[in-house]
Every structure is written in C-alpha cells, then in structure tokens.
Amino acid sequence: MITYIINRTLKTCPIMLGVISVSFLLFHIAPGDPVISMVGENYKEETLQQIRKELNLDKTIVEQYFLYVTRILKLDFGQSYITGQKIITVISQKFFFTFVLAFFSMMFAIVFGVFFGIISGLNYKNKIDRLIVFLSIIGISSPVFSVALFFIFIFSIQLKVLPPSGYQGIQYFILPCIVLGIRSLSLFIRITRDSFVEIINEDYIRTAKSKGLKDHTIINKHVLKNLLIPIITIVGIDFSSYLTGAVLTESIFGWPGIGRYLVDSILQRDFPAIQATVLFMSLVFVMINLFVDILYCFVNPKIREILIEK
Amino acid sequence: MKKFLISLIIFLGCKIQPSNDQLNLVLPGDPRSLDPILATDVRSGQICTLLYDNLVHYGDSVEIIPGIAKKWNISNNGKKYTFILNTKVYFNNGKKVKSEDVIKSFLRIIEPSSRSPFSWIFENVVGAIDYKQGNEKNIKGFVAPNDSTIVINLIRPQNSFINFLAMPPTSIVLISEGEKIIGSGPWVLTERIYDGHLLFHKNENYFNGEPLLSKIQISIIPETFPRIAKYISGFLDIMEIPKNEYLDWKKKKKFNEHIYYQNELNTYYIGLNCERYPFDNKKIRQAVNYAINKTEIIEKILNGNAIESKGPIPPKLISTKTNHVYNYDIEKANQLLKEANVKQEIEVELWQSKSQKNSLITEIIQSQLEQINISVKIVKRDWNNFTQAIRNGETDMYYRSWHADYPDAENFIEPLFFSNISKSRWNRYENKNIDKLINRIKNGDDTVIRNKNILEANNIIVDDAPWIFLWHTQTPFIVNPKLKDWKPKVMYNAEKYLKVKKNDHVYNQ
C-alpha cells in the first residue's frame, strides 16, 4: 500500500512539470502586456522599459522560463507584478477561504443529499419520491448565478435574516454554502436514491431481511457501505472543482477565494500570480485524486487488491 | 434534532444589525496597492488618502488646502516652493513628521530602482533626472533647511506643480525596518483580507481632529446585486447607484431623498486614428462628430447623468466657451463627407473593452453612424488587449475615457494630444501648434496667459476633431439615511471621512 502511495506521488512530478511548462507558455504567448496593467494611464515610455527590465520581461522567453523554473524549485513564487504582494501569502490566505467554503458546501451536500436520497429510495415511485426527484432536477439544472440571486433576494432583502455577502461570522456562511453545494446535493440525492433502489433488490439484502434484521440496521450495515463508492467519486470530482472553480459563488458573495484571484490575475496579465495559482490548483486537483484513490482502497478491498497487483 | 431546529429558528429570527459606530463602504475590486507610489488606480488612491497625508490636500472642490504643510510660499519667478510643516503631525508609530521624511517619500518615486510610474511628477525638479539616471546621490532641488521647512526648486515655473503634491503618490510615509509603510492619516489599517475587506480604526491623535466614527470597513463586492442587497439591508452606508436601479430609485421618495451626485473630472470620447484612412481626413472626423446624437445616448443609456462635451476639457476646468461646437446635424455631416469626396460606404472598426455598459453605447454609435453611410464593426477585447491595440495603432476608432490625475486643464491636453505621446500611445494625432502651446502651458506661470493658451489649444483640438467628443459624467450615490454630513467631493482622493457620523434615530428603510 505504501509503495502504491509513493509510486502515485512520484507520478505527480511530471504532471506538475507539464503544468508549469504549459501554463508558462500559454500565458506568455497569449496577447497582452502586464506592464500596461501596472502603470495606469499617465506614464512615460521609459518607465515601461525600466519596469520590463526590472521584471526580466525584456529577456527571451526561454531565459524567462528557466529563471521561472529555477525559482519554483527554490519554492520562491515571487511577488505580484500588479500589487507587489508576496504570492505565497496571498494564495495561502485565499485558499483558506476557498477551502472553508468548499468544505462546508460539501458537508451540507453530503448530509442532506444522502438523507433525502435514502428517503426518496424508501418511498420509491410514490409522491415523496417524485417531489424529491423533481426538486433535485431543479437543483442540478439551476445556474449558480440565479440561485444565488434568488436566495439573496429572499433571505437578505425580504426576510433580512442573513447577510447578503461577507464572511465574518457563521451566518455569512449559510447562503454561499447552500448555493455552492446545491448542485452536489442534487447529485447525491439522485445517486443515493438510484444506488439505494439497486442495492435494496440485491440477494444479500433479501437474505438480511429474511434473517429478520430491522430496516435501519439493513441501511446502516449494508446499504450505506455500498453507497460509499459512488459518493466518494462525486466528492472527489466536486470537491476539486469547488476548490478551483467556485468563481461565480465567490464573486457574488464577496468571498475572497482563489478562483476570483485567478480570474483577476489573468485579466491583468499578472504572470507570477497566474502561474503560481495554476500550479497550486493543479497540485490540489492531483492530491485530491490521489486521496480519493487511497480511500477507494480502504472502502473496497477488491480495488485495493487490483491496485497493489498493478 | 428538535433542539437543532429550535436553535436554527432562533438564529434565523435574530436579525443582524449593522453598527452605528462604523462606516460601511464598498468597492467593486481590490485596490492594486496600498503603497502610494504604486497607486495607479482610483481605488488605491481613495484608500491611500485614508492612511496617509500629503503636504497639501484637495478641498471639497478643486481647491488646494493645507495638509502636513500648514502654509507655503511660491517665489515670484514660480520656481521656488517653500513649505512650512505643521509640527503637530505624527506618524502612526508616534514619530514626528519632519522635512527629511518628506524628501525620503519623494525620493521613493524617482529613485533609479523604483517601479513607480509617477516619476514624471518630479521631472521638473532641479537634479531629478540626474538622480533618476543614477548620476547623483541626491536631488539638488529638494532642500530641508530645518525639521519643519522644505524647499523645492524647479527648473521652469510650473503652474500645476502644487496639484502634484496633493496626488496619492506624493503622500508622506515612513518606511519601517520591516519595509512596512507607515502613514500619518486619520485611519489605520487593522485588518485586510485580499479581495475581501479592509478594516480601519481611527487615529485618535490625528492632527486635524480625530474622526467622529470609530471604524471604516470597505468590502470588496464585484457583483451589483449583492451590493444593492447590502445597502437595502443596512450594511452599506454609501454606494454608487447601479445604472439599472437609478431611474426606479429616483422616482421613489425613500431613495430619492438620499441621492447625491458627484460631478466628475473626466471626459468620454471616441479616438479616431488620424494616421490612416478614413480619419486622416479632417472633414470626415468632423462629419462623424456631427453625426452623433449625444443627447439621445445620455438620456437613454446614461440616465441623464452626463453633460455633453464641447471639447476634451471638463467645463469646471475651462473658463471660456469654445468657438466650435458639434451639435447633432446629419445634413452638415453629409455635406462634410461630400466635401471630403467620399463616394462609397466607409467601413471602420470601433474597439471597446468588454463591458455591458460600453456595449450599449457603442451599438447606438454604430447605428447613428450608419445614417451617414459609415459601416461600423464593433470589436471587443479585455482591457489589457484593448489598451495594447490602441498603443499599436491597430484601431480605427476606440471608445475610452480619461479621468483627471489632478484638477488642471493641462491634464486633459498634454497626456492626450502632445504629438509624441499621441503617436506612441493613442490615436496618432499630430499638430505642431498644439505641441508649442502645450509647452507654453506647462512652463507658463502667468495665469491669464496660461488660460488663453489653454483656450487656444482647446479650440484647435476641437476644430481638428481627433476625437468624437462625447460627454463628462456625474456619478449618483445613495447614502444610508442614518449617515449625516457626507457629500461627494470632486477629487477622488479628497475624502478622509473625518466629519461623517451616523444618527441613531433614523432607521433603515
């Protein structure tokens, strides 16, 4: 198992090198000049040349690439061209907020998704099931933007019980977590319901029933365990995307997350910030996938055997 | 489960109340830098003014009032500025502000390794260019005879120089050992979450009297709707009114009573590439000026919150009326095209930066120019690419605006129409007479002659029509009914929120 984890971790190195190279090339080849974003409107031409020299932007792209890779190997992510802030400080602060938002959204989605999925499965094809399925379809198909605005309108403007944006207290977490988690919640409901109906008709459940086990014991011992694999898969995919691409939710609720930072950096051609953020996001993505694979091994011994054999 | 539900109901039932001792403001994006020498955007300038002081400040309008300097004197030849510092000004770490701090702050802008784009501010100071090039260790033009006096010697008289000293980059700061920037302003930054918020506590020892409120929180909210929600739920005290809400709010008494307008020093225009066909022809440039119905655009798109431009300079900064005015006149436009020997349809590209507000404006302009047989293709790019395309001279026409760095007509002429600048950065306009006039305006000291030169330059530019002159905007703000004694100031960096307070007895709508 440990050999497998080490192998997988080592395999991430070429991936990260690829990410560094591709992102560097893409953003340097793409049109746009970071120095234009830095100087504002009223400036002297020689100032542009001087700043380019200071930032090594007057060197060839190959020289710039090697300078960049050397710095990354020393774990020096540099400073933002635009704000002069240390990028590592900004990213760590922003990642904290993104992580908190993603974590609580996922918790909300898992708890309520599995709960309503089981309720739906237990009431298969009756009114409650249909209502839950109907609501989950709305949840999956509603754009984040409109859900967010609808919730702000109801809870902040009409009822005035929750703040419309910010993050300085628990009440500020409720709306963004619901909005971000609502799509995963709906997916969890659908997956849980379908898997539940499938599992409940399996022979081993029939055997358990015939042994006289109570419904909740069957659900706890047999159904929930078997639900873990599809749930872990969705958590892996959605949690990664929450950590890297919750830009809309972050913008609407004024949440200082990493997605917004990347978009702003791209618009301003802030190369060090773009590269460091892309690198960081890729690392997060790779790590979560690795973590999900390891979890599979713990949950399902069959998968563990296959992976270790490989 | 029951307990959880009860607590949830109680929690939701508790309406959260905003504090009466804190001013809540909003910005659509993070300020670029709180280092004043890098404050190239309006947001950074607005925040720098809370944290730092200048030798002189802007008043409610465009007048200069004392700041760290309690008085100043300009020599008869206009080349020597002597400032006497207020001895009661202290940095927030308790250190007294002395003349050496003023010089150090100025040197930061112009030192050889500086990344500040504001080095032009001091290019007229004796010895500044040598210092910038690394030939001298000090700037001869900055002299500190004692701790409370500073003398600045200029190469040539420069009427607008005093304005430069009220701009954000010339703030007086102290750099601590840990490279921290310390100011003497009325507010101290105590908390900052990038892209989240900035929290300021008042400086109780502020030399101009401590602020009446204890705290200011500036939230960064990029989207309009959450900003509106925040205002309506009482968590915002001053907010620029979103364009889509303006007409509705203006009709409602509960909103209308709390709307204030800021007349801005800006100019909106369409730059016409004077170097190539079709706009290398003056008559075609004049024709497009006559073909634009500005009144219609101002009413339909800008909700009436603008005044028509009669030239590049905002009316507040120019004393006399201009000779030549382009009023909407299709016949005149067609006649000018005929005189220019235009027989076929003209096809041009109109560039703009990506934004919904800009799109509506450029689309109306597109349809208005169709009436004189000019076919316009709209090209949208993000800000950086858009600016670069203009610099490279790739654009036939571009929709842009210019906002005053300092309140002087010169700031609307030199950086935009001086041949060398226009040819490398803008719409390739070249007029030797304008260059001569600009040099006279820049170096002139006699106010009457200077104003005459400004007017003459303005008239030549209007006649040459290198732009379609559009409008100067005013910004409507809505204010929390609790807030007292706030009115928008003309200059973006004039507001220090010293006298603003909140009234307990008025409740939010």
Tally of strands of chain B: 22
Low-confidence stretches of chain B: 505-509
CATH architecture of chain A: Orthogonal Bundle
Low-confidence stretches of chain A: none
Q: What is Rg of chain B? A: 25 Å
Layout of helices and strands, plus pairs?
The complex is a heterodimer of chains A (about 300) and B (about 500).
Chain A: H1 2-29, H2 34-39, H3 45-54, H4 61-73, H5 87-122, H6 127-141, H7 144-158, H8 170-200, H9 203-210, H10 215-245, H11 247-252, H12 258-267, H13 271-299, H14 301-309
Helix pairs in contact in A: 1-13, 5-6, 5-8, 5-10, 6-8, 7-8, 8-10, 10-13, 12-13, 13-14
Chain B: H1 2-13, E1 22-27, H2 42-51, E2 56-58, E3 64-66, E4 69-74, E5 80-85, H3 99-110, H4 128-132, E6 142-146, E7 149-153, H5 161-164, E8 174-175, E9 181-182, E10 187-193, E11 197-202, E12 215-220, H6 224-232, E13 238-240, H7 243-251, H8 253-256, E14 259-263, E15 266-272, H9 282-291, H10 294-300, E16 306-308, H11 330-339, E17 346-353, H12 356-370, E18 374-381, H13 383-391, E19 397-403, H14 414-417, H15 419-425, H16 432-443, H17 447-464, E20 467-479, E21 483-484, E22 501-502
Parallel strand pairs in B: 1-12, 17-18, 17-19
Antiparallel strand pairs in B: 2-3, 4-5, 5-7, 6-7, 8-9, 10-11, 11-12, 13-20, 14-20, 15-19, 15-20, 16-20, 21-22
Helix pairs in contact in B: 9-11, 16-17
Quickly list its features.
heterodimer, A: 310 residues, mainly alpha, MetI-like fold, 14 helices, flat, B: 509 residues, alpha+beta, eight-stranded mixed beta sheet, four-stranded mixed beta sheet, 17 helices, 31% helix, 23% strand, globular, disordered C terminus
